[in-house]
Amino acid sequence: MNEPVQIQSRDFWVKVVEMLQQNWALLAPESPPGVRVYFINDASGVFDEIAFISADEACKALGRNGFFRFVDDKEAQSILCPPSGPFHRYPHPNGPIYSSGRFWR
Asked: Which secondary structure element, helix H or strand E, spans residue 31, and what is its range?
């Protein structure tokens, strides 16, 4: 499944899942007003997404779930490299881990 996903933002959020594995997130505005968070693996594969009513709500939810804004963490910038795109659909081996609520508060 290599369907392209167009995401303009490069303001990454990141969650370190385990040694040498990160989950990345990007916010994209939607119509009607709202925002969609795309969850991306290190190989630019979009494996899940969640819609929110605002960017503020999305950012709060990301923080509550262990994600942090990449640009705000100089140490993370020195050791991690966000996926560069182009982005494409790539199903997670465990299904939609965030939108299902299994790993999302």
From this structure: none
Strand extents, DSSP E, 31-91: 34-40, 45-52, 68-69, 87-89
Dihedral angle of Cα 16, 42, 37, 10, to the nearest 10 degrees: 100
Residue type, 91: P
Q: Is the pTM of this model over 0.85?
A: yes
| Per-residue model confidence as pLDDT tens digits over 5-25 | 999 999 999 999 988 889 999
Q: Do 13 and 25 meet the contact criterion of CB atoms below 8 Å apart?
A: yes
Quote the strand ranges of the chain, DSSP E: 4-5, 13-18, 21-30, 34-40, 45-52, 68-69, 87-89
Q: How many CB atoms lie within 10 A of CB 84?
A: 8
Please tell me the predicted confidence (pLDDT) of residue 33.
86
DSSP 8-state assignment for residue 72: G
